[in-house]
Fold this sequence. Notes:
By secondary structure, the protein is α/β, with parallel strands linked by helices. It has two domains: 2-91 and 301-319, NAD(P)-binding Rossmann-like Domain (Rossmann fold); 93-109 and 150-291, Rossmann fold, CATH 3.40.50.720. It has helices spanning 11-18, 32-38, 51-56, 76-80, 93-108, 111-119, 129-133, 144-147, 164-175, 203-209, 229-234, 252-260, 302-319; strands at residues 2-6, 25-28, 44-47, 62-64, 84-86, 156-160, 179-183, 212-215, 240-243, 266-269, 289-291. A six-stranded parallel β-sheet has the order 7-6-8-9-10-11, with helices on both faces. It has a five-stranded parallel β-sheet with strand order 2-1-3-4-5, with helices on both faces. It is elongated. The model has no long low-confidence stretch (mean pLDDT 95).
Amino acid sequence: MKLLIYPAIDNVRYSALCDVDSRLTIVNAADAEQAEREIVDAEGFFGKMTPALLARAEVLRWIQSPTASLEHYLFPELIDHPCALSNMRGLFSDVIADHVMGYVISFARQFPLYFRQQLCANWEPAGGEAARTDNKCGPGMITDMDRAHRHLADDTLGIVGVGEIGAEIARRAKAFGLNLIGIDPVRRTLPGIIDDIGDVSQLPELLAASDYVVIAAPHTPETFKMFRRKQFEQMRSTAYLINIGRGVIVDLADLTAALQQKQIAGAGFDVFEVEPLPSDHPLWAMENVIITPHVAAASPRIAERHFAVVKENVGRFASGELLTNLVDKRRWY
Length: 333
């Protein structure tokens, strides 16, 4: 049994994979020419598959993608090929969920405002200094300062795409007391967290009910430009949109217009339809927008997790066991 790796990995990881199962021959191709020779009789492959490589494969049964997202990995011939495909799903779930909660807490507690005020030594609370000191406000009275800060247990977080990442976001949000709703084309329940996950057709209902809308869906033909003007009109004017899924899910021009016209309260985005976001784009100057440069999945733990998935699946492949993280190539996930 033969596994081809291309591009080549470092010797430490290569040696570790060679030790997984003695029945497996592993070729760590140094260049494209070697990869094209070795793919002919390879039954497994790890790395970047191309149409040229796939065309030469004669007995290929399994491909391990080095990425979780597949929009830039798949091509028509690979979709039609009978080989199994597995990806890196699940590596980033907790890290990205933490990033999402950072957005949510920042908006709820007015951190963007306070970060700006800190730079100029401004002590004024959201809602105005008078709201904090007004003697007319007796004990137990709600002030403008109180209204400017949200109580998370009173709010609803809607998740678009309750996959591995979306499910972890739900678990984190549940711990903060948020009310949760979600939609997904496959998952129908998340025991103890969300009892009834709706179909994608229920997006309008989710938008109308949510104080925070989190996009955790992958890029597929169905999610491309899923959020346009119509969807912003369906959201609450006090709601925030958060996107850690894929940039192309949200039309950038329509998002910008919705924020400028105050159709929604704000946005926290790690991914954009155009990356890097142009330096002269209006979103940079909006005080109700948090922008991070596609770093939601960044963590010192990712490399070890990545290799652990590869090693696990190499072992399963060699012994004929069911592979982990298998995907539906036609659905892109």
